[in-house]
Write a structure and sequence with these properties.
The complex is a heterodimer of chains A (390) and B (858). Chain A has 4 domains: 2-48, no CATH class; 55-105 and 261-323, PTS-regulatory domain, PRD, CATH 1.10.1790; 133-218, Gyrase A, domain 2 (2-Layer Sandwich); 326-390, DNA polymerase, domain 1, CATH 1.10.150. In chain A, helix 4 crosses helix 13 and helix 11 runs antiparallel to helix 12 (272-289). Chain A has a 4-stranded antiparallel β-sheet with strand order 10-11-3-12. In chain A, strands 5-6-8-7 form a 4-stranded antiparallel β-sheet, with helices on one face. A two-stranded antiparallel ribbon of chain A has the order 1-2. Chain A is flat, with a radius of gyration of 31 Å. In chain A, strand 10 (225-231) and strand 11 (234-240) form a beta hairpin. Chain A is built from 17 helices and 13 strands. Helix content of chain A is 45%, strand content 17%. Chain A starts with a helix and ends with a helix. Chain A is α+β, with helices and mostly antiparallel strands. Chain B has 858 residues and is of the alpha+beta class. Chain B has 5 domains: 85-213, no CATH class; 322-485, Beta Barrel (Barwin-like endoglucanases); 501-620, Enzyme I, Chain A, domain 2 (Orthogonal Bundle); 626-784, Topoisomerase I, Chain A, domain 4 (Orthogonal Bundle), CATH 1.10.132.30; 809-852, no CATH class. Helices cover 38% and strands 14% of the residues of chain B. In chain B, strands 10-18-11-17-16-19 form a 6-stranded mixed barrel. A 4-stranded antiparallel β-sheet of chain B has the order 12-15-13-14, covered by helices on one side. A 3-stranded mixed β-sheet of chain B has the order 2-3-7. Classes of the chains: A alpha+beta (390), B alpha+beta (858). Chains A and B meet through helix 2, helix 3, helix 4, helix 5 and strand 10 of A and strand 1, helix 4, helix 10, helix 22 and helix 25 of B. Strand 13 of chain A pairs antiparallel with strand 1 (13-14) of chain B, so a sheet runs across the interface.
Chain lengths: 390, 858
């Protein structure tokens, strides 16, 4: 049976073959039937193949443009009741296609190694490791001592114990993140921070105080919220804030399943293909959340267009459109004057090989039925007649 | 076609500077006076309306080409500027060039070797790569030169050139006049300007400083004659008049040896006018205005923005042979037809070439003339003259009509048309229909094609286009026909389907109806099914429905209620027909018919199904009214109990919160948790009421039939009318109490109870209390705002997407490439499947296996 299916490799796409394999096993088909199924699928596949010349770009644009009018503008989504806020809906879709450097609500989905992922206690512990703790989070009060020009922080002992923060760790990390200060730990659960630089203005101390509040103590920078969520039979950690590189260094984390919604960060840490997958995953998320029905091929297509050069290009004036060869195509989108001026400086030639330029000069567009040229030559007889006339 | 057409194709367009030489070469007249017309009202020679520049008045002839109005396209003129001026759009490039070249020797401030290396790189990029890459390299060179203070060639010290916006260059706080600037730019050798991104044959740097200005032909700036006989000139003519006037004054002053300061002033003024002539919307430059205060529309404004030349006239064009009017529904019309009003059919025409076989047929049209249907409006003679058919010209035209003429006849039934509704968001927004000429004044269309057009009949208007050539008609029919758009390429599901009443009708029919033989015959004949099989004396709905299906059709689907819908050998054996079978998207039955019997048959069957549904409703009557929302006393009591319980639950949660007995959800505060749980409880109660109503209300209630068949509305809508509108959510939360601690002033401060936070416990039929009504208005307004803000946003997203992706196509080697032949995907979607030919994006292996097992195939 497997041999039979193997014969069709390269004729029928792999995914369909897998489907056939699985289904025919489930339905316990005999070999002869499988053969019929394979031939039938092959026939349907051949019929379903896309034609050369199809203006697939426009079809994809339409597939997004049409339903995007039905999307909701303001959605914050809380799947279940206990998830992190995530922008969804049209704003998120725009954000993805614009290729913004940082999303409005960066977040991660962290899967854990199999030995941890089923134990809620362990998961919670790991989650608390990931969450960034700032000095502000474990202190009761910040007081400015004007006489000594220092800042005294009274700490929450219990919270510290809960988060297993030792005084030495605290002093070190605060020292690290504030740099030019001296940090001392006093016995009565207080931290004294003093600027190393000679006595400055009063406002400097207040600035230092604000800085001290945000001093990094523990956890992973940028992760402001962690929520363990049960999905299926495993626990997954949802976060607000994204920092893939550092999360992947935690030993309990399943390195292959750290998913960030930050496209650029993913590209930087894991490469362009990962970024492409991120675009697909994030767009699918929006579409499913809105209850829309857009085929995955369209999403893959946009992701491929955005990443084809090896860099992430947004669907904007500065992104993909700026890469176009044709001056007129660029000019017809936005800032026409700029494009024409720049083209004239360098003596650019528009060879009219894409769509809008040909629309402009009333010529057939090189897509679909406008693509093939006529190969036949005028027959000799007609040519003679032509000459005779002249 | 026998005409000697010459087809020319534009192969490419080169963008470059206009050199003074070039301007003079293409000019036909030198403009020397700002006067436009003489006393008699004739254009002045050497003025801006000189007839050498083309003609805009009927009766005049162009002095250059002899063409009349519309024959002569116009010719350029020029003016000699008394002093050079800077071209505003090239200020940046001029600045770069000044900064990067030596003051004295004009060479680029780079060593020969480095210069050579970069020159080669830029030249190569220009020849082989895109212009964008060359620009990037140029930017690098300019960046590199930035701090160089000494010319490597002549060792001269360099000073930094600054710009005082908009057009003044300074060096060492000393002003560089355009003459000096031009002199410097002239000194730069050809080889060096490559490094600055200029290509000598197209763009010498000194051409960026204008010494001579081209005057566009008058045809491009026609004047308008007002009713009073007064002439109103175009904005450009005004602007050019200013330039010419100042230029003449400057000449005169220079010749008269006026003091330098006066000359400088005039020079600056000339610079200002030339600057605003190019662009009247610049920062730092006050725009030139009409006397009324409205800014002039000069060259840049003509090109720019949505109403500019590019987007308004070049990327989108006006067309002839089109019409627009209100649409209305007609379920009796064929799915692929469009009802065209008689007056439209007599205005739009189809050109028909006369030959010996159709000459008599076409003569009949001419005999009828333009005012009798079916007639003809024009004939075109073999030498391409258009002749209008009137009662007077009718006879001579009939007499001279021979093969080779073209007759523009009125529309007839069956002609090809293209029908469109804006916004044209997807390709199904413009489809090919067959014309059906009907009385009345609106376009008629079958309700089943409302979904692809997203049309309704509350005043929508649609456009019709009549293709004029055989190629266009063939292409429209083959590629845009309604039948070919049966499945949307968005998701691979059907978009053309039965809607609304057609669905309710089929639901009622297949649910339990039974008809006598006579009634069945009546029904079927009324929908146009004429070859009836032998009918039984009494037939149930399922049997009647089956009559529309092909005899060998087998398929198992699922109804909206989750039960199977079984077809075996063309018979509906089990299940009820509802949206899941014949509706949009999920239309499983239609989908399968399309698969087995092809587009044409699927459309035909759908047409019959839709008509049958409506015929059934027409027979027994179908309507909805207030009585549909009546609840039995017992149900009403249960509803009230449920509401009471839900409210109590809300209070309970609040009490628990006060007593700190609530545990927070992970990642949420206690307060948020309470809110979420109250919301949940209140939303749940409405669903419960919905279930109650759906179970207890009479099955024959028409509102319920509509909801259950999926024709229109949901049970929720019935619930909202008859029992309870439910919790009003604003931004995912209950209505906020705000800073004042309450939603409305009749509540106590801090009241968090359901009724005080937007829970509407009444149905629309009972009527809402004022506060409830207000809460409803709040959410209503929010959703209105959402729609109003969303439309432009999503429109822009769509425009960007379409613009970025428009030239991507499938190549003959099945790869996806852009216009530069760069590969984007090796195989479209990894498997090369066309979504509009797939079943929801894939090939349904399960179905095939099922069929093979059932012995349908093989």
């Amino acid at each position: 049976m497997d041999d039979l299916i193997k014969e069709y490799e390269g004729i029928i796409p792999g995914k369909l073959l897998e489907d056939i394999k699985r289904e025919s096993k489930e339905q316990s088909l005999i070999k002869k039937q499988v053969k019929i199924v394979l031939d039938k699928v092959k026939e349907e596949y051949e019929n379903a193949k896309i034609d050369p010349g199809e203006a697939i770009g426009i079809i994809t644009a339409e597939s997004f443009g049409e339903p995007s009018t039905q999307m909701v503008l303001r959605t914050f989504h809380f799947a279940g009741v206990a998830e992190v806020n995530v922008t969804l809906g049209l704003p998120r879709l725009i954000e993805i296609f614009d290729a913004r450097k940082i999303p409005e609500t960066p977040s991660m989905e962290i899967h854990l190694k199999s030995e941890y992922k089923n134990d809620p206690k362990q998961v919670r512990k790991i989650a608390s490791l990931i969450k960034e703790t700032k000095l502000e989070d474990i202190s009761r009060e910040f007081t400015v001592n004007l006489v000594k020009s220092s800042i005294e922080v009274s700490l929450d002992r219990e919270l510290m114990r809960e988060l297993s923060i030792t005084p030495t760790l605290l002093v070190d990390s605060v020292q690290n993140s504030l740099k030019t200060v001296s940090v001392k730990y006093k016995d009565d659960d207080a931290l004294v921070i003093k600027s190393k630089s000679p006595e400055g203005e009063l406002s400097d101390i207040y600035r230092l105080k604000e800085k001290a509040k945000n001093a990094h103590v523990k956890g992973i920078k940028g992760v402001t919220q962690v929520v363990p969520v049960k999905t299926g039979n495993e626990y997954v950690i949802q976060t607000a804030g994204s920092n893939v590189r550092e999360v992947m260094e935690i030993k309990e984390v399943d390195v292959e399943n750290v998913l960030s919604n930050n496209i650029f960060e993913t590209a930087e840490v894991l490469g362009i293909e990962a970024a492409k997958e991120t675009i697909i995953r994030e767009a699918v998320k929006v579409i499913e959340n809105q209850g829309l029905d857009i085929d995955i091929r369209h999403i893959m297509f946009i992701a491929d267009v955005m990443t084809a050069t090896g860099n992430i290009k947004g669907i904007t004036r500065a992104g993909i459109t700026s890469e176009k060869e044709s001056v007129l195509a660029r000019a017809s989108f936005e800032t026409p004057i700029k494009h024409i001026i720049n083209a004239s400086i360098i003596g650019e030639v528009d060879s009219l090989n894409s769509v809008v330029e040909n629309v402009m000069v009333n010529q057939a567009v090189p897509l679909g039925t406008g693509l093939p040229g006529l190969l036949a030559k005028m027959s000799a007889k007609l040519e003679k007649e032509d000459k005779k006339k002249k | 076609m026998s005409e000697d057409y010459v087809y020319k194709k534009i192969k490419s367009i080169i963008f470059s500077f206009m050199s003074p030489k070039n301007i003079k070469k293409m000019a036909t007249a030198k403009i020397v006076t700002s006067e436009l017309y003489d006393k008699e009202g004739y254009p002045v020679d050497g003025g801006l309306m000189d007839t050498r520049l083309g003609v805009i008045d009927p009766g005049f002839r162009c002095k250059i080409c002899g063409g009349k109005l519309k024959e002569c396209m116009g010719h350029f003129g020029y003016i000699e500027l008394a002093r050079p001026v800077i071209h505003i759009n090239y200020v940046k490039k001029i600045l770069d060039t000044l900064r990067c070249t030596c003051v004295t020797c004009g060479r680029i401030l780079l060593d020969d070797e480095i210069a050579k290396k970069y020159r080669e790189e830029i030249k190569e990029a220009l020849a082989k790569e895109t212009a964008e890459l060359a620009r990037l390299k140029v930017r690098k060179v300019i960046e590199m030169i930035k701090g160089i203070k000494k010319c490597p060639h002549c060792k001269e010290k360099q000073y930094s050139v600054k710009i005082e916006k908009p057009t003044t260059f300074t060096e060492n706080d000393k002003r560089l006049s355009p003459i000096e600037v031009r002199a410097r730019l002239e000194r730069v050798p050809d080889e060096d300007i490559y490094l600055l991104g200029l290509v000598p044959e197209h763009a010498r740097p000194e051409w960026m400083v204008l010494t001579i200005l081209p005057i566009p032909p008058v045809t491009m700036r026609p004047s308008i004659t007002l009713e009073t006989g007064e002439r109103s000139e175009d904005d450009l003519t005004h602007k050019l008049g200013d330039i010419v006037r100042i230029n003449q004054r400057l000449f005169e002053n220079i010749n008269a040896g006026a003091p330098e300061i006066i000359i400088e002033d005039l020079w600056d003024l000339l610079q200002y006018h030339v600057t605003t002539y190019f662009d009247n919307d610049l920062a730092q430059v006050p725009p030139t205005r009409h006397r009324s205060g409205q800014p002039l529309k000069t060259l840049a404004e003509r090109i720019k923005s949505k109403e500019g030349r590019f987007r308004h006239n070049l990327a989108g064009k006006r067309v002839n042979f089109s019409g627009r009017t209100v649409i209305s529904p007609d379920p009796k019309i064929e799915l692929e037809e469009v009802g065209v009003p008689l007056i439209v059919a007599m205005e739009l025409t189809i050109p028909e070439k006369v030959n010996e076989w159709n000459i008599d047929w076409l003569k009949a049209f001419i005999k009828n003339g333009p005012h009798t249907y079916p007639g003809a409006n024009y004939v075109i003679t073999p030498d391409n003259k258009k002749k209008k058919i009137t009662n007077e010209t009718k006879e001579p035209i009939l007499a001279e009509l021979t093969p080779g003429y073209t007759v523009e006849r009125h529309l007839l039934d069956g002609d090809i048309s293209i029908f469109n509704r804006q916004p044209s968001l997807h390709r199904m927004s413009i489809m090919c229909h067959k014309v059906k000429v009907l009385p009345g004044k609106s376009f008629r269309l079958n309700p089943s094609v409302c979904t692809p057009y997203n049309a309704d009949f509350d005043g929508d208007e649609m456009n019709i286009h009549i293709p004029q050539t055989e190629e266009a008609r063939t292409e429209a029919e083959a590629l845009m026909a309604v039948r070919s758009q049966f499945i949307t390429p968005k998701s691979g599901y059907n978009i053309i389907s039965a809607i609304q009443d057609s669905i309710s009708g089929n639901y009622i029919l297949t649910k339990e109806s039974e008809y006598t033989k006579e009634e069945v015959a009546q029904l079927l004949i009324s929908i146009g099914v004429e070859d009836l099989p032998t009918l039984k004396n009494r037939m149930n709905g399922k049997e009647i429905f089956s009559l529309l299906l092909p005899k060998d059709f087998s398929f198992i689907g699922t109804g909206k209620d989750g039960k199977s819908v079984v077809f075996r050998n063309g018979k509906l054996e089990e299940g009820i027909i509802d949206v899941n079978s014949i509706g949009v998207g999920t239309g499983d039955l239609l989908r399968n018919l399309h698969n087995y019997y092809g587009q044409e048959k699927a459309i035909e069957i759908l047409n019959n199904i839709a008509k049958l549904g409506i015929a059934v409703l027409l027979k027994d009557g179908f309507s909805t009214g207030i009585a549909d929302t009546d609840l039995p006393a017992e149900t009403w009591q249960q509803v009230q109990d449920l509401l009471k319980k839900a409210e109590a639950k809300g209070f309970q949660l609040l009490d628990d919160f006060k007593n700190k007995e609530i545990e927070a959800f992970p990642g949420r505060t206690v307060q948020e948790t309470v809110e979420l749980r109250i919301m949940e409880a209140l939303n749940k109660v409405r669903d419960q009421i919905g279930n109650l109503i759906s179970d207890q209300i009479d099955e024959t209630n028409h509102s319920i039939i509509m909801a259950k068949s999926g024709a229109r509305g949901k049970i929720l809508n019935v619930t909202m009318m008859s029992a309870c509108v439910g919790q009003q959510a604003l931004r995912g939360k209950r209505i906020e109490i705000g800073y004042r601690g309450r939603t409305l002033s009749l509540f106590k401060k801090g009241d968090l109870s359901p009724l005080a936070r937007g829970f509407i416990a009444r149905g629309y039929k009972q009527g809402l209390t004022p506060q409830e009504f207000f809460f409803g208005a709040m959410t209503g307004r929010d959703s209105l705002m959402d729609t109003a803000l969303r439309t432009p946003k999503s429109g822009y997203l769509y425009r960007r997407l379409a613009n970025a992706l428009q030239d991507l196509k499938i190549e003959y080697d099945n790869t996806v490439r852009d216009a530069n032949e760069n590969i984007v995907q090796f195989k479209y979607g990894d498997d090369g499947i066309d979504v509009s030919r797939s079943h929801g994006g894939t090939i349904n292996v399960k179905k095939i296996i099922k069929e093979v097992k059932g012995g349908i195939h093989g």
